[in-house]
Amino acid sequence: MKITEPNARALLAAEYVLGTMKGKARARFELWLRSDPGLRKEVAAWQGRLEPLAGTLPEVQPSEHVWRQIEARIQRRAVPRENWFTSLAFWRGSSFASAAAAALLFGYIAITPKDHALTPENAMVAVMADDKANPAITVSWEMHQSTAPRLRVRVIGHQEMAPDTSWELWMLPGGDQPPRSLGLITTHDTQYVTVSSDMMAKLPAAVGLAMSVEPKHGSPTGLPTGPVLYSGKCVEI
Amino acid sequence: MSIGARNAREAHPNELVDPYQGQMMDGADSLDDLMARCALRDQRAFAELYRRSSGRLLAVAIRIVRRRDWAEDVLQESFVNIWNHVTDYSRAKSAPMTWMTAIVRNRALDWARRPKHETSEEDLEGIIENWEDSSPGPAARLLQAGEARQLAECLGELSGQQRQSIALAYMHGLSHSELADHLGAPLGTIKTWIRRGLEKLRGCLEAKGA
After folding, report:
1. B18 and A75: CB-CB below 8 Å?
2. Contact flag B175-A166 (C-beta cutoff 8 Å)
3. Do A170 and A182 meet the contact criterion of CB atoms below 8 Å apart?
4. ipTM exceeding cut-off 0.90 for this assembly
5. Do B52 and B32 meet the contact criterion of CB atoms below 8 Å apart?
6. Of these four, A112, A206, B105, B192, which has the most CB atoms within 10 Å of its CB?
7. By three-state DSSP, how is residue A172 classified?
8. Considering Cα of A167, then A169, then A174, then A177, what sign does the dihedral take?
9. Confidence of residue A198 (pLDDT cuts 50, 70, 90)
10. pLDDT at B138 over 70
């Protein structure tokens, strides 16, 4: 059944929120809700209208064990079923440059003079693109650097950083792991970022890299807090 | 950014990456900010969100399930739900407290309607008495809440029976038939009070631009 009459829809939404709709009617309405954004909007409007009633109640502090149980449950499955890389809303604004771009870049790296010998099978590259798939930053590295491992970062074009912000580079380990900071970068054409051996060891398995805009000295939380400007997959070359 | 600052960070990259070493919450973050951080799996932000909202949400659950231990179970389920679905939350659609209240009320209503959780008659009588006055009792409480002035004014325009039915249903989770039993009116009449009351409420709130 489809409910189309506006007043009937509004009233059903109201009775759903109020809680007087119950049993099978409630279950059926919840099914409609899934496929009807307009109806969800109506429900949200009623939730907002009536919610001040809940605010009139004197607060009741829960027992301490309630939080301990919640904490235990969310830590056991701190991670949603999807992995970080695909599930987070903030990645949705980004898209990935194609492998073709990486291949082009490989050609580019191979002919760059005075660089480390980046040869196939021991190097990786991430072409980080904006939301229109324009490459903006490339990060490349040799996979088996024994001492002071570093990443080479190239910023394409003459980009500007907003005042009092910084650009932070992140590794996306994939699976259920949160992003890990690789450090801050500048707008310079070519630069190197030193990383720990531990981080270097994790890079080959990373699904991608990303760059976010952070406060002046980097993310205060250890996780991206600002918009992700560029992101890209790591490709072996 | 100074080169010095950059070098310092590069020298100790691991210092920067532990999500649990994040900044201490200073109490100044808005609920919106906390929700955004929860979406990034920041458990400290979640703890702070719980600290700020659990007292209010437990009060909501207690009114509906009418037993503190049950209400605490509802609260626990709700917060696990909030954590798991916070990435779906959209600020554009509702305020954080409205969104969380809806989750708690849904859980509480489901709970209260399982047969073994039904409330005794004596419990209900007390609740009905609290809301019995046909003067704008709930509306008066709302007026004190400031943020809710428009709702209070609009509830004040309903008949006492309409207002009482809506308030009992929302606050205490009473069903049509419970309302009929305890307000001593036929089921059809209760349904009409609620329907007309809701229509009037919506018209009034929309006219006020709420």
Report:
1. no
2. no
3. yes
4. no
5. no
6. B105
7. strand
8. negative
9. confident
10. no
Reference A211, options A176, A181, A174, A178; nearest CA is: A181
What is each CA distance from A186 to A139, A149, A153, A169, A226, in whole angstroms?
13, 19, 9, 10, 16
User: Residue holding tokens 């250890």?
Assistant: A222
Strands of A208-215's sheet in order across: A180-185, A165-172, A208-215, A228-236, A123-129, A135-142, A150-155, A190-194
State the average pLDDT for chain B.
Answer: 78
Q: Which residue of B has its CA nearest to A150?
A: B10
> What confidence tens digit (pLDDT) does each residue in A202-221 have?
888 887 888 888 888 888 88
Is the pLDDT at B25 greater than 70? The verdict is no
d(CA B138, CA B142): 6
Task: Kindly report the pTM of this predicted structure.
Answer: 0.56
Distance CA(A196)–CA(A203), nearest Å, equals 11
Residue A41 in contact with partner chain B when CB distance is under 8 A: yes
- Report the residue of B151, B168, B174, B181 to disrupt the A interface, i.e. the one with the largest count of A CBs within 10 Å: B151
CB-nearest partner of A221 from B42, B80, B151: B42
Least confident range of A107-121, B33-47, B127-141, B191-205: A107-121
pLDDT digits (tens, 9 = 90+) for B105-117: 999 998 887 766 6
Q: What is the pLDDT of residues A126-165, one digit of tens each?
A: 888 776 677 789 898 887 777 778 899 998 887 888 888 8
Please report residues of B whose CB lies closer than 8 A to that of A73.
76, 80
Residues in chain A: 237
Shortest distance, CA A85 to any CA of chain B (angstroms): 11
**What is the pLDDT, as a whole number, of residue B146?**
56
Residue A42 amino acid letter: E
A117-129 b/e (C-beta count within 10 Å ≥ 16 → b): ebeeeebbbbbbb
Cβ–Cβ under 8 Å, residues B131 and B167: yes
Confidence band, pLDDT 50/70/90 cuts, at residue B81: very high
SS3 A217: coil
Distance (Å, whole) CA B105 – CA A19: 8
Which helix (H) or strand (E) covers residue B82, if one does? helix B68-85
Q: Is the dihedral of CA B94, B99, B102, B106 positive or negative?
A: positive
